[in-house]
Amino acid sequence: MTDLGMALLLVGAIMILLEAHVPTLGVLGGPGVVALGAGAVLAVAGLGGGIALAVVSAVVFVAAGLGILTLSLNKGLAVRRRRIRAGPERLIGHLGVVRAWSEPTGSVLVDGSLWRARLSPGGEDQPPELHEGDPVVVERLDGLTLAVRPAEDWELVR
């Protein structure tokens, strides 16, 4: 019984550590906490400790595991809510300036880089005309082509 308890303690600790490094939103950590509790009860009972000592040790191990799991889940969810800050996807919502435009595409300068762009499909009957120097906002990214729309006045004030 002691060997099984020690194995469960080890497996539970490994699963909680994996959850901390590979955020699976509790898929690994939850069973790891259960394994810690069961392992503590089996290990203490197998070593001849009383039932009270087994329960206390299980509560301590489960509390510690839940604390680590809660911290890991909070950090994992915070990372998922963050806005993308690297790669081309970070350009969405940024302002740019039209450098050249001939319907339906053109080139736009965004964050110091020249991109191929096209008008983002909108609800207007008449698509707006873009001219050199017009400010635009990046709405979407399709491969290496930006989908842009004319910037509104409130977007130009920063």
What does this structure look like?
By secondary structure, the protein is α+β, with helices and mostly antiparallel strands. It folds into two domains: 2-81; 88-156, OB fold (Dihydrolipoamide Acetyltransferase, E2P) (Beta Barrel), CATH 2.40.50.140. It contains four helices and five strands, in the order αααβββββα. It has helices at 2-21, 29-46, 51-81, 153-156; strands at 95-102, 105-110, 113-119, 135-142, 145-150. It has a five-stranded mixed barrel. A hairpin with a 2-residue loop joins strand 4 and strand 5 (145-150). The longest helix has 31 residues, at 51-81. It starts with a helix and ends with a helix.
Oligomer: single chain
Please state roughly what percent of the residues sit in beta strands, choosing from under 5%, 5-15%, 15-25%, 25-35%, 35-45% or over 45%. Answer: 15-25%
- Poorly predicted regions: none
The helix tally amounts to: 4
Global geometry: rod-shaped
Topology:
Blueprint lengths: L1 H20 L7 H18 L4 H31 L13 E8 L2 E6 L2 E7 L15 E8 L2 E6 L2 H4 L2
Keywords:
five-stranded mixed beta barrel, OB fold (Dihydrolipoamide Acetyltransferase, E2P), rod-shaped, alpha+beta, 158 residues, 22% strand
The gist of it:
The chain is an alpha+beta fold. The chain contains 4 helices and 5 strands; from the N terminus they run αααβββββα.
